């Protein structure tokens, strides 16, 4: 369905600009959680992996699809936990407040 | 009959994508960042759950999907939980690699199932090229950061031509497979793409990792977006739109971060990737003066009677896990009325923002952390700068014409009244360049492992009360 592909292309172009605008506001302080957070966001790949494995018909497709699902699940879960752990630390230092 | 599933799935994906964007936006402030990521997490969970009701999924595959999701989630969750904060760079690398691997595998499945459809298989091929490069490169980055592989650049003759040849031949196999609709050629394609990713990352040194990690992050995002394009071209490919948006978002974010990091080193991304920086040591320059060692007790006295102390941490602090001791030292000094600030260079450490994370872990409030641009004008009013395990980012050779570091924006610690450098030995920094700073009249060397040396300072300070 070529029309869908073109629609996706339009959406993709807009998303690139949104990404650029949103990220350029992030302070240096939060560069690590930004990186691991965006790492978590591309964990959406798990959704694609589920679809790919779900439509699989041959054993080879199923095998490769299973690999895709395992890796995607690792990406999304690990990315989330790491980001949350890092941000929890910044949260704590916030509560303590600045200065002696 | 119109199925109820499709509108539901689409609606959930739309909301999820919106929450992802808001979640990244919330990262513009530490006060909102955590809430943002938790919301994104919930949105992701619902998006994944709703994927199971997409009409047309084959039920016999459901046990496999469940198995994969459970295995992968448990492994990712456990690993991310138990890992030390100091090992964060390699964790980010490995989870990013998993995303790339997943994208490559999706590309493979799409090609296997739709090889006759050139538009789907072509896009899936592109996703597989980038995804496979990303997983292989991320694994090398992981091994280097973990210390299981030499972190210095690994170079061999005709390296770049070899790498390009591997890439071209690999992609050639892939294109041939799609063109001739023969799946057998996908095997050498994947083997060569993995090999290319490995070869690409080998000559990149440890201190260049902030650039490399963000680059592979961007690449995985792009691979995910390409797979998304392949999915929307097929039947029932609504998940593809979510992948296009989220993937492109990350691709743009990662590219921006990559450029920022490269700029912080005054080098192009190309130079970082292909320059094998730090493989050779600078020779032929002579620096006048000598390195002057100093005792911990003298440093403690100097710190105790200072008005302002600035700490400039680097990778050495991370390696020695000295951040807790640094926090202790800062608390003692502040109790004596000394103002303590931290000067953070953008590429100090092994990933963007590495030092901020370590100091936050130790409980140091982030309003004491200052960017290079904020703190540089202040150094001339600072009594003592304590350089802890940093080298190239404080090397005034950056201001010297002809130095490999020339033009790199540094922390101008040399302008302070006194500089104390905590360092394990007399060796050179990652760039393999003598540090002019160490020979300056106002600079003294406190030799030792960062944790031990700062520990001695803490002990000496306590004795003074």
In brief:
The complex is a heterodimer of chains A (100) and B (465). Chain A contains four helices and no strands.
Description:
- The complex is a heterodimer of chains A (100) and B (465).
- With 100 residues, chain A is mainly α.
- Chain A has helices at residues 2-23, 31-41, 45-54, 59-96.
- In chain A, helix 2 packs antiparallel against helix 4 (59-96).
- The longest helix of chain A is centred in the last third of the chain and has 38 residues, at 59-96.
- Chain A is flat and about 50 Å long.
- The N and C termini of chain A lie far apart (63 Å).
- With 465 residues, chain B is α/β, with parallel strands linked by helices.
- Chain B folds into three domains: 1-82; 87-280, no CATH class; 296-464, 3-Layer(aba) Sandwich (Rossmann fold), CATH 3.40.50.
- Chain B contains 16 helices and six strands.
- Chain B has helices at residues 5-25, 30-51, 62-82, 88-114, 118-146, 159-180, 186-201, 209-233, 238-264, 269-274, 296-304, 315-320, 323-335, 354-361, 372-375, 450-463, and strands spanning 308-313, 339-344, 369-371, 384-388, 418-423, 443-447.
- Chain B has a six-stranded parallel beta sheet with strand order 3-2-1-4-5-6.
- The longest helix of chain B is centred in the N-terminal third of the chain and has 29 residues, at 118-146.
- Chains A and B meet through helix 1, helix 2, helix 3 and helix 4 of A and helix 1, helix 2, helix 3, helix 4 and helix 8 of B.
- Count, helices of chain A: 4
Described by strand count, sense and barrel closure, the largest sheet of chain B is: 6 strands, parallel
**Outline of chain A:** flat
Average pLDDT, all residues of chain A: 87
Shape of chain B: elongated
Report helical residue fraction of chain B: 55-70%
The most extensive interface, with participating residues per chain, is: A-B, 91 and 120 residues
- Indicate the structural class of chain B: alpha/beta
Largest sheet of chain A: none
> Roughly what fraction of the amino acids of chain A lie in strands?
under 5%
Instruction: Tally the helices of chain B.
Output: 16
Distance between the termini of chain A: 63 Å
